[in-house]
Specification:
Order of helices and strands: HHHHHEEHEHEHEEHHHEHEEHH
Structural class: alpha/beta
Radius of gyration: 21 Å
Number of strands: 9
Mean pLDDT: 94
Number of domains: 2
CATH class of the largest domain: Alpha Beta
CATH architecture of the largest domain: 3-Layer(aba) Sandwich
Largest sheet: 7 strands, mixed
Number of helices: 14
CATH superfamily of the largest domain: Vaccinia Virus protein VP39
Shape: elongated
Distance between the termini: 50 Å
Strand content: 5-15%
C-alpha cells in the first residue's frame, strides 16, 4: 500500500497542485485507465474536482484557488483509494459523463464509455432521417446511458431499454428518474429480445458483452471491478453479438439501422462473416469497433447469421 508524505498536505495548496500531484502518483503506481478517461491527468482532474464538489468542466481560472486543509486531506484520501483499490474512478465518484450527460454508476453496471455517444449526439446522421424516428431499442442497457441519451436526441421517439440483470436495471431506473424520462424510456428485464412487445424499431443500438475469455483474463484490475456478465461473451467474444444479428431482422423497420459495438472483437466478427458489408464507423473523439448495418443487409444476410448459431 502506498503512503503519502505528510508534507504534501502543507506544500501543495491549489487545485492545480493536487491535479498535477495525483497524475504523477497515478503514473508512478501504473494505474490503468479506460473508463471514461485515457490519461493520468484527465483522471486526476476528474477525481480532484469531484472531491471538492466542483464540476468536471470548471473554468481554468479557478484551478489556482487554494484548498482548505480538510479539502486537501479529502483529495489525498481519494487518490489513495484509487491507487490502492484499483477500481474505476466512476465507482468512487458514483458519476460518469456520457454524451455530455451525468449518470449515476456503481459496481452493478459497466462504466459508460462507448464511442456510440458521438453517434447519438449526431442523431445517427447521415444513416437515418431523424424526423422519421419513432421507436428506438437499446439492448444490454446497463446504466441506461445510451437509452437516455437517445431520448434526449430524439424527444419525439419512444425508447425501450433491455437488460438481463435486475441489478443493472435498478441503476438504469435511477438514471431514468434522475433525468425525468420515465414517460419516454421503458425498461425491460429480458434476455435480449425475448420479453419485448411486438414492435419494429427505427434504430436498434447495443453495447453488449464482447470480450473473449482469454482477453478478459488479462484485463487490468480496474476492469475486473466491473460486472463480469457485462464484459465476457464466450471463447470468441461473439456469443451475444451473433444472437443480436440473428433476431434483429424481426424487430427493425424496413428503413431501420442496427448499430452494435464489438470493440476488440471486430476483427473476429469480420473474419467470421467475410461477405457481410459491415460499415465500421469512425469517431472524431476516438474509439472504434462499432458497426452499422441497414435493415436490408440484416435481412439479406440472415441465413449467414443463423448458420453461425448451429
Amino acid at each position: 500500500m502506498q503512503t503519502t508524505p505528510p508534507e504534501v498536505l502543507t506544500t501543495l495548496k491549489t487545485l492545480r497542485d493536487y491535479i498535477r500531484w495525483a497524475a504523477s502518483r497515478f503514473t508512478e503506481h501504473q494505474v490503468s485507465f479506460g473508463h471514461g478517461t485515457v490519461a493520468a491527468l484527465d483522471e486526476a482532474a476528474a477525481l480532484v474536482l469531484h472531491t471538492v464538489h466542483q464540476p468536471y468542466n470548471l473554468a481554468e481560472a479557478y484551478l489556482d484557488t487554494v484548498l482548505t486543509l480538510d479539502e486537501r486531506q479529502s483529495v489525498i484520501d481519494m487518490i489513495g483509494r484509487r491507487i490502492n483499490e484499483r477500481i474505476p474512478a466512476a465507482y468512487l465518484t458514483h458519476e460518469a459523463i456520457f454524451a455530455g450527460l451525468s449518470f449515476y454508476v456503481d459496481e452493478r453496471v459497466l462504466v459508460p464509455r462507448s464511442p456510440i455517444a458521438e453517434l447519438i449526439e449526431q442523431r445517427f446522421a447521415p444513416w437515418i432521417d431523424e424526423e422519421q424516428v419513432s421507436n428506438i431499442l437499446d439492448l444490454c442497457t446497463g446504466s441506461g446511458c445510451i437509452a437516455i441519451a437517445c431520448a434526449y436526441a430524439f424527444p419525439e421517439a419512444y425508447v425501450d431499454a433491455v437488460d438481463l440483470s435486475p441489478d443493472a436495471l435498478a441503476v438504469a431506473e435511477r438514471n431514468v428518474n434522475q433525468h425525468h424520462l420515465a414517460d419516454a424510456v421503458t425498461l425491460y428485464e429480458s434476455d435480449l429480445f425475448e420479453e419485448l412487445p411486438e414492435t419494429r424499431y427505427d434504430i436498434i443500438v447495443s453495447n453488449p458483452p464482447y470480450v473473449n475469455l482469454e482477453e478478459w483474463r488479462q484485463l487490468p484490475k480496474e476492469f475486473h471491478a466491473e460486472p463480469e456478465m457485462g464484459l465476457k461473451a464466450g471463447e470468441t467474444g461473439l456469443d451475444i453479438v451473433i444472437r443480436i444479428l440473428v433476431d434483429a431482422d424481426n424487430y427493425l423497420t424496413d428503413t431501420g439501422i442496427l448499430v452494435v459495438e464489438v470493440g476488440s472483437s471486430a476483427g473476429t466478427l469480420q473474419d467470421k462473416f467475410p461477405d457481410v458489408p459491415f460499415y465500421w464507423l469512425d469517431f472524431e473523439r476516438g474509439g472504434d469497433g462499432v458497426f452499422l448495418l441497414t435493415a436490408e443487409h440484416v435481412n439479406f444476410y440472415h441465413q449467414h447469421f443463423l448458420a453461425a448459431l448451429s
